[in-house]
Amino acid sequence: MTAGRAAMLLFALLIITSLWRKPLRIHYDEWRMLHIGLAVGAFLLALGHIEGVGYYIDAPAKRWLWTGYTLFWLLLIVYVRLLKPWRMRNRPYRVAEVRQERGSSWTLALEPDGHKGMRFMPGQFAWLTLRASPWHIKEHPFFFSSSAARQDRLEFTIKDLGDFTRAIKDTRVGEIAYLDGPYGVFSVDRRPKAPGFVFIAGGVGAAPIVSMLRTLADRQEQRPLWFLYGGDRWDDVIFREELEALKERLDLRLVHVLKEPPTDWPGESGFVMPELLRKILPRDAREYEYFLCGPKRMSDAVQQGLHALRVPLSQVHFELFDLV
Predict the structure, then answer these.
(1) What tens digit of pLDDT does each residue of 180-235 get?
(2) Fold of the domain spanning 188-320
(3) Is the pTM of this model over 0.90?
(4) What are the tens digits of pLDDT across the range 247-285?
(5) C-alpha triplet 196, 200, 205: angle, nearest 5°
(6) Scanning 102, 146, 243, 296, which has the fewest C-beta atoms within 10 Å of its C-beta?
(7) For domain 93-183, is the CATH number 3.40.640.10?
(8) How far apart are CA 101 and CA 111, in angstroms?
(9) Helices 60-78 and 28-53: crossing angle, nearest 10°?
(10) In whole angstroms, what is the distance from residue 253 CA to residue 237 CA?
(11) By the 8 A CB rule, do 252 and 223 touch?
Protein backbone atom coordinates (compact mmCIF):
# COMPACT_ATOMS: atom_id res chain seq x y z
CA MET A 1 0.00 0.00 0.00
CA THR A 2 2.89 2.35 0.74
CA ALA A 3 4.25 1.74 -2.76
CA GLY A 4 0.85 2.60 -4.22
CA ARG A 5 0.63 5.85 -2.27
CA ALA A 6 4.18 6.78 -3.31
CA ALA A 7 3.32 6.03 -6.96
CA MET A 8 0.28 8.32 -6.78
CA LEU A 9 2.45 11.07 -5.29
CA LEU A 10 5.03 10.75 -8.07
CA PHE A 11 2.34 10.76 -10.75
CA ALA A 12 0.89 13.94 -9.20
CA LEU A 13 4.34 15.57 -9.21
CA LEU A 14 4.77 14.49 -12.82
CA ILE A 15 1.58 16.33 -13.80
CA ILE A 16 2.31 19.41 -11.68
CA THR A 17 5.86 19.89 -12.98
CA SER A 18 4.67 19.39 -16.57
CA LEU A 19 1.78 21.86 -16.45
CA TRP A 20 3.54 24.52 -14.36
CA ARG A 21 7.18 24.11 -15.34
CA LYS A 22 7.68 27.79 -16.15
CA PRO A 23 5.95 29.22 -13.03
CA LEU A 24 8.07 26.80 -10.97
CA ARG A 25 11.15 28.06 -12.87
CA ILE A 26 12.42 24.59 -13.74
CA HIS A 27 15.01 24.67 -16.54
CA TYR A 28 13.94 22.74 -19.63
CA ASP A 29 16.84 20.24 -19.58
CA GLU A 30 16.45 19.67 -15.84
CA TRP A 31 12.71 19.21 -16.30
CA ARG A 32 13.24 16.51 -18.93
CA MET A 33 15.47 14.50 -16.59
CA LEU A 34 13.01 15.02 -13.74
CA HIS A 35 10.13 13.98 -15.99
CA ILE A 36 11.86 10.72 -16.92
CA GLY A 37 12.83 9.98 -13.32
CA LEU A 38 9.33 10.61 -11.97
CA ALA A 39 7.72 8.50 -14.72
CA VAL A 40 10.04 5.53 -14.22
CA GLY A 41 9.82 5.72 -10.43
CA ALA A 42 6.04 5.99 -10.42
CA PHE A 43 5.65 3.07 -12.80
CA LEU A 44 7.97 0.79 -10.81
CA LEU A 45 6.24 1.67 -7.55
CA ALA A 46 2.86 1.01 -9.15
CA LEU A 47 4.05 -2.42 -10.28
CA GLY A 48 5.33 -3.12 -6.76
CA HIS A 49 1.95 -2.15 -5.38
CA ILE A 50 0.09 -4.40 -7.84
CA GLU A 51 2.38 -7.35 -7.13
CA GLY A 52 2.32 -6.84 -3.38
CA VAL A 53 -1.44 -6.50 -3.01
CA GLY A 54 -2.03 -9.49 -5.26
CA TYR A 55 -5.72 -8.77 -5.79
CA TYR A 56 -5.16 -7.21 -9.22
CA ILE A 57 -3.36 -10.28 -10.59
CA ASP A 58 -5.14 -13.14 -8.80
CA ALA A 59 -6.62 -14.41 -12.09
CA PRO A 60 -4.49 -15.65 -15.01
CA ALA A 61 -6.07 -13.12 -17.39
CA LYS A 62 -5.17 -10.25 -15.06
CA ARG A 63 -1.64 -11.58 -14.67
CA TRP A 64 -1.21 -11.76 -18.46
CA LEU A 65 -2.65 -8.27 -18.88
CA TRP A 66 -0.24 -6.61 -16.45
CA THR A 67 2.71 -8.69 -17.63
CA GLY A 68 2.01 -7.69 -21.24
CA TYR A 69 1.65 -4.03 -20.28
CA THR A 70 4.95 -4.12 -18.38
CA LEU A 71 6.76 -5.75 -21.30
CA PHE A 72 5.28 -3.21 -23.71
CA TRP A 73 6.47 -0.36 -21.50
CA LEU A 74 9.97 -1.81 -21.23
CA LEU A 75 10.20 -2.45 -24.97
CA LEU A 76 9.09 1.13 -25.60
CA ILE A 77 11.94 2.41 -23.43
CA VAL A 78 14.41 0.17 -25.26
CA TYR A 79 13.19 1.46 -28.61
CA VAL A 80 13.17 5.17 -27.68
CA ARG A 81 16.42 5.25 -25.71
CA LEU A 82 18.51 2.57 -27.47
CA LEU A 83 17.28 1.54 -30.92
CA LYS A 84 16.15 4.94 -32.18
CA PRO A 85 19.43 6.69 -31.19
CA TRP A 86 21.32 3.86 -32.90
CA ARG A 87 19.40 4.57 -36.13
CA MET A 88 20.10 8.29 -35.74
CA ARG A 89 23.78 7.54 -35.18
CA ASN A 90 23.87 5.87 -38.60
CA ARG A 91 22.16 8.83 -40.30
CA PRO A 92 24.15 11.90 -39.23
CA TYR A 93 23.93 15.41 -40.63
CA ARG A 94 26.55 18.11 -41.04
CA VAL A 95 26.07 21.80 -40.44
CA ALA A 96 26.26 23.47 -43.86
CA GLU A 97 25.45 27.06 -42.88
CA VAL A 98 24.58 29.23 -39.90
CA ARG A 99 22.78 32.30 -41.24
CA GLN A 100 21.76 35.30 -39.20
CA GLU A 101 18.16 36.43 -39.59
CA ARG A 102 16.27 39.42 -38.28
CA GLY A 103 14.85 39.48 -34.77
CA SER A 104 17.74 37.74 -32.94
CA SER A 105 17.14 34.58 -34.95
CA TRP A 106 19.43 32.22 -36.82
CA THR A 107 18.84 29.69 -39.56
CA LEU A 108 20.70 26.42 -39.12
CA ALA A 109 21.13 24.51 -42.40
CA LEU A 110 21.94 20.79 -42.29
CA GLU A 111 22.95 18.42 -45.06
CA PRO A 112 22.85 14.61 -44.83
CA ASP A 113 26.18 12.87 -44.32
CA GLY A 114 26.23 9.60 -46.24
CA HIS A 115 22.48 9.19 -46.77
CA LYS A 116 19.61 10.73 -48.77
CA GLY A 117 18.22 12.91 -46.00
CA MET A 118 14.72 13.14 -44.57
CA ARG A 119 11.32 13.48 -46.16
CA PHE A 120 8.84 15.62 -44.25
CA MET A 121 5.59 17.49 -44.69
CA PRO A 122 5.85 21.29 -44.57
CA GLY A 123 4.91 22.45 -41.08
CA GLN A 124 6.35 19.44 -39.27
CA PHE A 125 9.17 19.49 -36.71
CA ALA A 126 12.11 17.34 -35.63
CA TRP A 127 14.17 16.84 -32.49
CA LEU A 128 17.65 18.27 -33.01
CA THR A 129 20.79 17.08 -31.22
CA LEU A 130 23.95 19.18 -31.50
CA ARG A 131 27.38 18.64 -29.93
CA ALA A 132 26.25 15.43 -28.22
CA SER A 133 25.67 11.75 -28.83
CA PRO A 134 22.12 10.80 -29.86
CA TRP A 135 22.01 8.62 -26.75
CA HIS A 136 22.29 11.70 -24.55
CA ILE A 137 19.06 13.43 -23.60
CA LYS A 138 20.08 16.69 -25.25
CA GLU A 139 17.58 16.97 -28.10
CA HIS A 140 15.37 20.03 -28.66
CA PRO A 141 12.30 20.35 -30.93
CA PHE A 142 12.31 22.80 -33.85
CA PHE A 143 10.09 23.29 -36.87
CA PHE A 144 11.51 22.92 -40.35
CA SER A 145 11.62 26.28 -42.11
CA SER A 146 12.91 24.94 -45.44
CA SER A 147 10.86 23.66 -48.35
CA ALA A 148 9.72 20.05 -48.14
CA ALA A 149 10.56 19.78 -51.82
CA ARG A 150 14.23 19.42 -50.77
CA GLN A 151 15.41 16.62 -48.54
CA ASP A 152 19.12 17.17 -49.25
CA ARG A 153 19.20 20.43 -47.25
CA LEU A 154 17.11 20.94 -44.13
CA GLU A 155 16.79 24.31 -42.41
CA PHE A 156 15.58 25.34 -38.97
CA THR A 157 15.06 29.00 -38.04
CA ILE A 158 15.64 29.41 -34.31
CA LYS A 159 15.14 32.47 -32.12
CA ASP A 160 17.51 33.29 -29.26
CA LEU A 161 15.23 32.48 -26.31
CA GLY A 162 17.21 30.21 -23.96
CA ASP A 163 20.52 28.54 -23.18
CA PHE A 164 20.47 26.14 -26.13
CA THR A 165 19.01 28.55 -28.68
CA ARG A 166 21.44 31.26 -27.60
CA ALA A 167 24.34 29.00 -28.60
CA ILE A 168 23.06 28.33 -32.14
CA LYS A 169 25.01 31.30 -33.52
CA ASP A 170 28.24 29.72 -32.24
CA THR A 171 27.68 26.50 -34.18
CA ARG A 172 30.48 25.85 -36.66
CA VAL A 173 30.09 24.66 -40.23
CA GLY A 174 30.97 20.98 -40.41
CA GLU A 175 29.77 20.10 -36.92
CA ILE A 176 27.79 16.89 -36.64
CA ALA A 177 24.07 16.88 -35.85
CA TYR A 178 21.36 14.27 -35.42
CA LEU A 179 17.65 14.49 -36.20
CA ASP A 180 14.72 12.53 -34.82
CA GLY A 181 11.63 13.07 -36.92
CA PRO A 182 9.63 14.22 -38.65
CA TYR A 183 6.69 14.69 -36.28
CA GLY A 184 3.45 16.64 -36.24
CA VAL A 185 0.22 17.06 -38.20
CA PHE A 186 0.45 20.84 -38.65
CA SER A 187 0.66 20.82 -42.44
CA VAL A 188 -1.20 21.90 -45.56
CA ASP A 189 -0.44 18.46 -46.98
CA ARG A 190 -3.12 17.04 -44.70
CA ARG A 191 -5.73 19.31 -46.32
CA PRO A 192 -5.21 18.69 -50.05
CA LYS A 193 -8.80 19.62 -51.02
CA ALA A 194 -8.86 23.00 -49.27
CA PRO A 195 -9.92 25.87 -51.58
CA GLY A 196 -7.29 28.11 -49.95
CA PHE A 197 -5.26 28.70 -46.80
CA VAL A 198 -4.98 31.44 -44.19
CA PHE A 199 -1.76 31.54 -42.16
CA ILE A 200 -1.47 33.56 -38.95
CA ALA A 201 1.80 33.73 -37.05
CA GLY A 202 3.70 35.76 -34.51
CA GLY A 203 7.47 36.19 -34.35
CA VAL A 204 9.47 33.02 -34.95
CA GLY A 205 6.16 31.17 -35.16
CA ALA A 206 6.43 32.04 -38.84
CA ALA A 207 9.04 29.27 -39.32
CA PRO A 208 6.60 26.42 -40.11
CA ILE A 209 4.42 28.84 -42.08
CA VAL A 210 7.39 29.83 -44.25
CA SER A 211 8.17 26.14 -44.76
CA MET A 212 4.65 25.67 -46.10
CA LEU A 213 4.85 28.78 -48.29
CA ARG A 214 8.23 27.77 -49.70
CA THR A 215 6.91 24.30 -50.45
CA LEU A 216 3.75 25.63 -52.09
CA ALA A 217 5.85 27.97 -54.23
CA ASP A 218 8.09 25.09 -55.34
CA ARG A 219 4.94 23.16 -56.27
CA GLN A 220 3.62 26.14 -58.26
CA GLU A 221 0.52 26.39 -56.09
CA GLN A 222 -2.35 28.43 -57.60
CA ARG A 223 -4.85 28.54 -54.70
CA PRO A 224 -5.38 31.85 -52.81
CA LEU A 225 -3.32 32.35 -49.67
CA TRP A 226 -3.37 34.89 -46.84
CA PHE A 227 -0.63 35.46 -44.28
CA LEU A 228 -1.23 37.70 -41.25
CA TYR A 229 2.13 38.12 -39.57
CA GLY A 230 2.39 39.78 -36.16
CA GLY A 231 5.66 41.24 -34.89
CA ASP A 232 7.08 43.83 -32.52
CA ARG A 233 9.21 46.08 -34.77
CA TRP A 234 9.66 46.30 -38.53
CA ASP A 235 13.42 45.76 -38.36
CA ASP A 236 12.88 42.52 -36.41
CA VAL A 237 10.41 40.85 -38.80
CA ILE A 238 11.95 37.48 -39.71
CA PHE A 239 11.79 36.39 -43.38
CA ARG A 240 10.69 39.93 -44.35
CA GLU A 241 12.47 40.06 -47.70
CA GLU A 242 11.72 36.50 -48.71
CA LEU A 243 8.02 36.89 -47.98
CA GLU A 244 7.93 39.78 -50.44
CA ALA A 245 9.65 37.60 -53.02
CA LEU A 246 7.17 34.78 -52.42
CA LYS A 247 4.34 37.13 -53.36
CA GLU A 248 5.72 36.98 -56.91
CA ARG A 249 5.45 33.19 -56.98
CA LEU A 250 2.16 32.70 -55.12
CA ASP A 251 -1.33 34.18 -54.98
CA LEU A 252 -0.40 35.54 -51.55
CA ARG A 253 -1.89 38.44 -49.59
CA LEU A 254 0.66 39.42 -46.97
CA VAL A 255 -0.39 41.59 -44.02
CA HIS A 256 2.17 42.70 -41.41
CA VAL A 257 0.82 43.72 -38.00
CA LEU A 258 3.35 45.59 -35.83
CA LYS A 259 3.14 46.15 -32.11
CA GLU A 260 5.61 49.07 -32.26
CA PRO A 261 5.32 50.45 -35.81
CA PRO A 262 7.55 53.26 -37.12
CA THR A 263 6.04 56.72 -37.34
CA ASP A 264 5.48 56.49 -41.10
CA TRP A 265 4.05 52.93 -40.98
CA PRO A 266 1.19 52.61 -43.51
CA GLY A 267 0.08 49.13 -42.45
CA GLU A 268 -1.72 47.50 -39.54
CA SER A 269 -0.62 47.98 -35.95
CA GLY A 270 -1.37 46.48 -32.56
CA PHE A 271 -2.21 42.80 -32.34
CA VAL A 272 -3.85 40.21 -34.58
CA MET A 273 -7.29 40.56 -33.02
CA PRO A 274 -10.81 39.51 -34.12
CA GLU A 275 -11.53 42.99 -35.53
CA LEU A 276 -8.56 42.74 -37.87
CA LEU A 277 -9.67 39.30 -39.06
CA ARG A 278 -13.07 40.70 -40.05
CA LYS A 279 -11.35 43.54 -41.89
CA ILE A 280 -8.77 41.49 -43.79
CA LEU A 281 -10.34 38.12 -44.54
CA PRO A 282 -12.67 37.57 -47.53
CA ARG A 283 -16.40 36.98 -47.27
CA ASP A 284 -15.99 33.27 -47.89
CA ALA A 285 -13.54 32.97 -44.99
CA ARG A 286 -15.43 29.99 -43.56
CA GLU A 287 -14.36 27.84 -46.50
CA TYR A 288 -10.60 28.09 -45.94
CA GLU A 289 -8.18 26.13 -43.75
CA TYR A 290 -6.42 28.13 -41.01
CA PHE A 291 -2.94 27.56 -39.61
CA LEU A 292 -1.94 29.45 -36.46
CA CYS A 293 1.49 29.47 -34.83
CA GLY A 294 2.76 31.85 -32.19
CA PRO A 295 2.34 32.97 -28.58
CA LYS A 296 -0.62 31.61 -26.63
CA ARG A 297 -2.20 35.05 -26.21
CA MET A 298 -2.26 35.63 -29.93
CA SER A 299 -3.50 32.12 -30.66
CA ASP A 300 -6.36 32.40 -28.17
CA ALA A 301 -7.47 35.78 -29.57
CA VAL A 302 -7.37 34.54 -33.16
CA GLN A 303 -9.33 31.41 -32.32
CA GLN A 304 -12.01 33.55 -30.69
CA GLY A 305 -12.12 35.74 -33.78
CA LEU A 306 -12.46 32.76 -36.10
CA HIS A 307 -15.21 31.36 -33.91
CA ALA A 308 -17.04 34.70 -34.26
CA LEU A 309 -16.65 34.38 -38.03
CA ARG A 310 -18.23 30.91 -37.76
CA VAL A 311 -15.17 29.12 -39.09
CA PRO A 312 -15.62 25.40 -38.27
CA LEU A 313 -13.32 24.15 -35.53
CA SER A 314 -12.14 21.31 -37.79
CA GLN A 315 -10.61 23.92 -40.13
CA VAL A 316 -8.50 25.65 -37.47
CA HIS A 317 -5.06 24.13 -36.78
CA PHE A 318 -2.56 25.64 -34.34
CA GLU A 319 0.82 25.13 -32.72
CA LEU A 320 2.10 26.99 -29.66
CA PHE A 321 5.71 28.17 -29.25
CA ASP A 322 5.76 27.52 -25.50
CA LEU A 323 8.27 24.74 -24.86
CA VAL A 324 11.72 26.37 -24.78
Answers:
(1) 989 999 999 999 999 999 999 988 899 999 999 999 999 999 999 999 999 889 99
(2) Rossmann fold (3.40.50)
(3) no
(4) 999 999 999 999 998 988 888 888 877 788 888 888 888
(5) 125
(6) 296
(7) no
(8) 19
(9) 160
(10) 17
(11) no
Question: What pLDDT was estimated at residue 322?
Answer: 58
Domain ranges of the chain: 2-89, 93-183, 188-320
- CB within 8 A of 197, min separation 6: which ones? 188, 191, 212, 223, 225, 226, 288, 289, 290, 291
Q: Is the distance from CB of 124 to CB of 143 less than 8 angstroms?
A: yes
Q: How far apart are CA 224 and CA 213, in angstroms?
A: 12
